[in-house]
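Risk register update: the risk of archive-format incompatibility is retired. Evidence:
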Amino acid sequence: MTLLSRRQFALALPLLLGGCVSDLPPQGGLASLAGDGEDTGGGDYASIYRGFQDGRFPVPAVDISRIDPRFYRQRVSDPTGQPPGTVVVDPDAHFLYYVEGGGMAMRYGVGVGRQGFEWHGNATIRRKATWPTWTPPSDMVARDEKAAAWARGMPGGPGNPLGARALYLFQGDRDTLYRLHGTIEPESIGKSMSSGCIRLLNQDIIDLYNRVSVGTRVVVKPSQGAGDTYAEASPDVFEPRGRPVPMSQGDAPSYGYDPNDSGDDGSM
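Archived output:
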């Protein structure tokens, strides 16, 4: 089989890495405690999610009509009970909170991949990357030559599935392989995906990136089962078939991120 060109492969990545979604889950957990949110831009979400130039690369505008408004970035009453400066991920509700203090938190809508449901626990942000490199995992490289074309890593940029920023979570000196990152598929926000960890709109991951620092504590709540069902991938997609294997707290999700990418800010 002939290898796809890099341009063709980049255009196909939304299908390869997250084109399969499930219906929105019922709201509950922390979301039910937060109440209605306060928008962060005077109702001008078109301005908040406008396109702009970010260094060498453009960040495209988001078509907010394709996203449920409850997943827009907004300030809410803090439902987490965590100290200010903590990041809390509620995968079942598809929300991420940054605790601000004064009883408030900034809430972001997220898309949650299989690995985002399978790991939970406490961690620390040990690395921050701008326009990070994506590297497919070795098993994906071994079974599909399209992925093998990027075995050494896909450079950061507008076609990279990790989006504009990535935050790398560690437990002590151990990389959990759990990431908070951007996306090239905005319509996936608020949905359950067949691969990946926790994705935010690029405008939102940039906002979060600017709020947190290396050493920020992250709490990932355990899933109560909202991630058990994923839409089937199409036959030409890299995804493995069948139900995910349950993972205990501390197990590392197997998803391909390059721990040595050059787009590094605030690393150890």
